[in-house]
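Researcher: First entry.
Model:
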Amino acid sequence: MSHTHWDREWYHTAARFRQRLVALLDAVLGRQHTGETFLLDGQAITLLDYLAVRPEREAEIGARLQAGTLEAGPWYVLADNLIPSGEAILRNLEAGHRVMRGLGAAPPPVLYCPDTFGHPAALPSIAAGYGFGTAIVWRGAGGAAHPASDAFRWHAADGASVATHHLPPDGYEYGSALPVEADAAAARWQRMYSVLTARNRTGVLLLLNGADHHALQPDIIDAVAALRDAAVADAVVQRASLTAFADRFVAACRDVALPVVQGELRDSYGYTWTLGGTLGTRAQQKRRNALLERALLRDVEPWLALSWLHHATARARGIASDGTVTLAQLPALLNIAWQELLETHPHDTLCGCSIDHVARAMDARQESVQSQAWELRRAALNLALPHDVVTARLRPISLDTPQALVVRNRAATARGGIAELRLIETLADVAVGPGSTLAAPVDARSDAPPPQVSGVLVQPLDARVGHQRRESPQHYPDNDLVRVHRVVAWVPEVPALGLRVFASAPGDEADTDLPNTVPAVRIVESATAVMLDNERLRVTVCDGRVDIEQGARRLESALSIESFADLGDSYTPSLRGEPERLTCVETVVRHRGPLRAAVRLTWESVDRDIRVQTTLILDAAADLLRCDVSGMNRRRNHRLQLKWRTGFSDPVTVADAAFGPVERHVARAPVDSREAVVPTMPMHRWVTQAQLGDCVTLFADGLAEAESSPGALSITLLRAIGELSRAALPERPGHAGWPSPTPDAQSLGRFRARVGCMLHADDADRLGMVSRAADALLVPLCGETWRDLDPASTTTQIAGPQLHGAALEASAVTLAQRGDGIILRAVNLSAAVVQGHWQLPHDGPWMVTRCRLDETPLDSPVRRDARVAFTAGPREIVTLHLTVARLA
């Protein structure tokens, strides 16, 4: 099978590689050989890159794809699949299919993953959800725990499986540059045949003719003829497409008993390089990616669904005559934001193993997506409330104007309690243009008390003065000087995936007491220690030592920060010597309750080239200790970890991953392995150690590397390295990539993270408790003042879908990609059958269709009212398509 493996950016930028891509595809399209096929890797973005330069060839590209002589997809980009969330993996597939549909074609029926640095345990479920009967993988399989076979049946936890072809040790380039001379072809065939047949189970061999950025071999017809002659006694050699191979492979798998593989594929030790050490490289970019994914999934898509559920005018997707953004534009704009974020997901990009120019381009894309997400959220909320920005722009605002506080609940369960709010006061109008320097002075102090919200207890945190604009498509912006107060508040219950609107105005009397059932959090100081206590959790800080008590559970000296010398490269750590433990040099009380107590610890290295501040935060009624990390790194060539002691000598480790938890073990490499095992692991939202009925769970907001060792859980804050690849590493002799200096990857400068720690029981509700705690930390109740929203004319509560069922976790609430309606997706985190239901905000009536992940119906539509019941099998991903029932 002729192909190219196209790393879109790596040791060159995407723009530079695109120049070569255009020449490559021009050459492919210029050939007129009957039946000749070419695989443009497993990603569709290469088609867009080519058509950006050659738009006049779109019809020809479409015709070639439809005829099967050119293949691309199913992915939008060949992404890393261990770092992104499960929903981001689905968005990648959907974007790839969208490109192919736009060209009138479909991708090959193969989940093609030729160079990903490992694969999630849920990938067979994803394959089944898109109708793929075949997967092709290389790295991640072949280790000591896997069968010595080029074909296996890969099972997911929900029972889905996919026939998987495993590439040979040299991967997708094994059949590159085939010779045309008879003697050379015979010698090459003997070498290849011995390797391929040693592991073959099906009688079908796949020889990939191509390599990184390789164009189609010009004399491939003669080379295949020579190979056919050389192999005549052993095999029938045919040129084939990826689709043709998949058909033959699936048919052959039916006739043999394939070995079974379960779980993640993260072990190629002794077979080929696994390259599992990239998880901590350029750690802040990985963290920002997780924040952006979460922003789109939890703070944009649900509000689009909310507007669809409540407003027939929004469902109509009409174009607004005044230029306001509506559902006529928002789905396409959301897709564009996702596509730009996905452009940062190729494994060389997101894993951090590219040159600095590529990393800077990733920074720019992430900044762009952040800006788009903010505007998408605002537009979606305007529709959901609803809020007419054109009329509101005409509403005069002053310090005395009643204003609305809009609180958002980004979880699929109703929640009240602690909310993080931005209360905004309008101080003065700020003119722009000639004469604007003559504005009268105003009180711009940042230490003024915050506005009060009627019936809500507020605890100030800090404030700043700045500018804020009110905008509409019919007016110039109204620029105002404002004072923004950051506060925590105790709010009444907010509907699931919904909104609650409160009135706020100067002069309102503030609540000063918490409900009787909620103890206030308090700070107790002595000459030697500071204690935070909310009657559920007690944290004591003394001379840099942090002790945590939760019921009968106690952790002593729970927190430390360690730096290890790391002489590795972007792919592989190479740790040296003993770790340096940073010293706590200062302890300062930041907040004293009654809603939030906080103590800031400052840590420094001996040479004072690493400085880290960890702010321990305990909220009223919280079961989780939050730790906000900010630091300054001036040290090169080291790894910095935040380490939490667990006290477990022989724990079981379970971690969050794509579409549900997985149990994790450190792989064991054979003695002849060319690569040492990297003991760290991917980190999504949480990782748990459990032993003898007790658990310690560590949460993080996007740092992608964790480590579980006897007695401790650690998170990598950063890896400071200065080379893309080094050849002389004892852990991995030889270059893994093209050597290039990467001074930006030294991660000099500021870094941040939000983590949390929870002590709890290993009981039946463990997974549900951890899921709720993750939401409390990562998507807390939040809100801000809408200065031009009139609270008197706004609905006070707008409810979204609420998920019910033990161990069920909401995965997506979003607009359908194919046709009208919304998608409700839930994951059963447990190994038991669960009866669940979505409670909708009103009776509709609705038509509900159970469907695959790609929205292909599995059952006939069923008419439902506000209660949409379903059964979720063990670890099943349940996707429901909801539309409005038509009246008879």
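Researcher: Second entry.
Model:
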Amino acid sequence: MPDINPAQHHRHFLLLEGDLDACLAYFFSLSKNARQPILAAPDLDVFNPIKHPKLETCLRIPNKNLKQVLGQSHEAVFLDIEEGLSASAISLIAGTIKGGGVLVLSLRNQETWFNQEDIEQAKYLPWPLTSKDALANFKHVFWHKLNSSHVQLRKVSANDLPDSPLPKIAANQGLVATDEQTKLIQALVEFSLNAHAKKKANQPVFSSRLIIAHRGRGKSTALGIALAKIHQTKGDIKLAITGPNKAALTQVELSYQKALQAETHKGLFYSPDSLIHTPQDIDVLIVDEAAALPLPMLKALFEHYHQLVFSSTDHGYEGAGKGFGLKFKTYLKTKSQSFEQLELTKPIRWQSDDPLEAFINQLLLQQDSDSPQTNAVHKAPLYQQIHHKDWQKYYLSLESCFNLLVSAHYQTSPNDIRWILDDPSVNTWLMKDQNQLISTAIISEEGLLEATLAKAVAEGIRRPRGHLLPQSLLAHEGHLDAGDYSYWRISRIASQSHLQQQGYASKLLTKIGQTGIEDKIDFLSASFAATFDVVNFWQKNGFICVRLGTARDQASGCYSVMMLKPLNSKAEQQACLYHAFYLSNLKQNLERDYPEIDGKLAQALKQNSASHYQFSPLEMSTFKALEAAKDIQDLNLFAHHHRPYETIRAQLYRSVIAKKEMGQAQEMALLEEAALKPIRAANFTQFNLLSKKAIDKALRQSVALNLL
């Protein structure tokens, strides 16, 4: 039988139920003709007891490393889901399988599988919850989608083998571009020639092309051919390509080499870090799998190299999604003098209407919605709160809710489906009009930590899963009572794009706050990447700043801000005090340690949002006494425990200045260097401190000796 063409065949999709050795024997027999099968599982130790000669020929990859297969092609994959079910793992690996190839999922026994501990689910359960406290909602969704798909469900036992192996898949030989790919290649060649001419004429412009495609559409192959044609058309054009890692660009490089045939060529790949920190002379830069790179890195590349092609998968793996396409497209259109979006819609890695692709889209709720848009809300909106235990009654609401989150939040990932469904501390809020979703919010219940745990968090000894707000207030701000309170953290909130700026998200927040008061919750809270518009939104809804992060978020390039909205009188008093400490520290830190923050955002961050709680002169003196005592407490947590240096900068400054004013600053040169200069400007080499670890140790010792 001749080798088959992947583009003319669907992928095979099986779920095997039985002992692992029997499932593997079936898989190895079925994939006898496949080149280097892949074995994957949450923990690869599951394969250690198995004795089979084919095991040595397989590539084994744990779920956590499957992102490394982006841009690659495989013929046979075995994913064991017995110990844990991961939406991202299935999505990632399925997208690499060629037509005619096979994805096999395996588990031991379906009935016990639903109720046993799942190590993937455990990642989403905050302290003190365990799998015993959580329902297997996501597993039920998975099984429902599986039963409505074209999967082959098969129970296997020892010596139970397929009738025959799958046909051998033809190796990639020549490069024959489809009509759709040819148009894309021509567009990229024209773009590159124009970019080269502009640069040569010393007329640099910001121009960009954005390629968005589903998995398997031949995007990487087309990029490789385009690179070769550009090289052949105009040999002096300086080209480069970058991406999350070199392995993700394997298909691009292979296509480039084949298209050049016998011609000599040099490597075009550069790491994104090196392109930013060691600039190259480049006419056109191509960024593949762009959604897997942090947004500030993409912006930095565009601002430096001006003429770029950004290419990425539409959805289907962590860190990407429709949110990337929507957000980044808006940025490029704003910044580019010439912008165009290019698409590839027809699959070439497998045949159209592939059942495995259909299953992945259904599982990840990525079906295109044809529901009509509501341009105006005609009646009073309806509010719905869905608890963990109620999801089985409301699965129909899940798809519209998740699609709204994907479109609004850049980093919404497949695994967020499981978090929403399986974390008992998460509540989902829906705001509807005539059964159409207007806005949604995801709420995480936090706080009420045990006293011993809260103390350990403040000292940097413990960091239990979850409870973001109270843990940060304990560990980074030194508010030792923060664990005593209950919080509803708004983890996500979004409104339909055509209904934004009409106050619907604010109305939803008001309803959530009213319910929080009824449920005797102390605070609503939020933590997010700080931009002026976002800070302004939360402040308008009664939230006040209590913490500014010390490092920029990798994905957004912004500093994080934490905000609270008190829901009772005791919480109001406490929030006011937290806010006062925040403002006092910000006064010392903002200009010297946050030079990247622009004036407009700085003003918003400095706003006294609790102005109706402002201290009178007597209260201010009382606050200063409280602050002095708290500075000693915070410095003690730094000197004798594990409080991070970046979080005690203002306290250190005030204490050093006080010592100097009292004439007690002898032998404090190290602390003066640290406290009085911007955090990035301090020169510790003069004290023979050459590593971050040495600096940290010396500062802790000096604080203990001189300030406590």
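Model: Note on the second entry: The chain is about 40% helix and 20% strand.
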